[in-house]
Design brief:
Layout lengths: L42 E8 L2 E6 L3 H4 L2 H8 L6 E3 L9 H14 L5 E13 L30 E11 L2 E9 L4 E10 L9 H4 L9 E2 L8 E2 L11
Antiparallel strand pairs: 1-2, 2-7, 3-4, 4-5, 5-6, 6-7, 8-9
The protein binds zinc ion (4 copies).
Length: 236
């Protein structure tokens, strides 16, 4: 991925109309390397918050992650989420449950969904400014007059988290619930050793305390002991 200096620049000049990603002004449009020039691009910026973990800020969440201040506002809410596991049949707030039922199948993560994080109080203020060019919108800058706009123009969108299991990694997906749907803002991917085989669905999803201990092979036949590490007794 190409490194663009303007992505790191906190930016204070609200009168400028340069692209917040590449720094080009309106006459130029965007630099060749700018993701705004690539309609098929999905990633805005990749960070490494911890060794082995990649945080990808997604272009689908541009309005919430295009500047360092926006990414900061967003990431400070992540630790506030309360996590529940589908296996425990949790009673989620109605709006969260409805959103989960709608978007989890669409994201293709039903089989790997290990936990859901939500908290009505973990929300991010968002400008409802109507700017058509999101790459140049500075309405949330401290120096911009929109900062003092009516509170109705500053809706708070709650954060939602999905913890998803893959064969050789974990994904934490971070979204905002806009009331009309969900906006996918970022994803943390951590690579892990491949899961041992055979493994029960419950151990695969890290619900080890609920695993019956035996995995049925996909092709039928005799169940074999679940190979998850949690079943190995630790030597005294
Ligand atoms: Zn640009
Ligand atoms: Zn704006
Ligand atoms: Zn296990
Ligand atoms: Zn197991």
């Amino acid at each position: 991925m190409t490194h663009l200096d303007a992505l790191i620049d906190p930016g204070t000049d609200h009168t400028a109309t340069t692209c917040l990603a590449c720094g080009a002004d309106r006459r130029i449009g965007h630099l060749a390397a700018c993701p705004a020039n690539h309609p098929e691009a999905t990633d805005l910026l990749v960070e490494t918050p911890a060794p082995g973990t990649r945080r990808t800020w997604l272009i689908s969440g541009l309005k919430h992650n295009l500047t360092p201040a926006r990414r900061h506002r967003f990431s400070t809410q992540i630790p506030e989420l309360h996590w529940v596991r589908p296996v425990d049949k949790p009673s989620l707030p109605f709006s969260v449950g409805a959103l989960v039922n709608e978007i989890v199948p669409r994201m293709g993560i039903t089989k790997g969904l290990s936990a859901i994080g939500s908290n009505a109080l973990a929300s991010v203020p968002v400008t409802d400014c109507g700017c058509t060019d999101v790459w140049r919108c500075r309405c949330d800058f401290d120096t911009h007059p929109f900062r003092n706009a009516h509170p109705d123009l500053w809706p708070e969108y709650p954060l939602i988290g999905f913890k998803v299991r893959y064969r050789s990694g974990w994904s934490l997906m971070w979204l905002l619930d806009t009331g009309l749907g969900a906006v996918w803002v970022a994803e943390d991917y951590t690579t892990t050793p491949a899961v041992p085989i055979p493994i029960t669905r419950r151990c695969y999803l890290d619900w080890c305390d609920t695993c019956p201990g035996h995995a049925k092979p996909a092709d039928g036949g005799e169940p074999s002991p679940c190979a998850c590490r949690c079943h190995q007794s630790t030597p005294a």
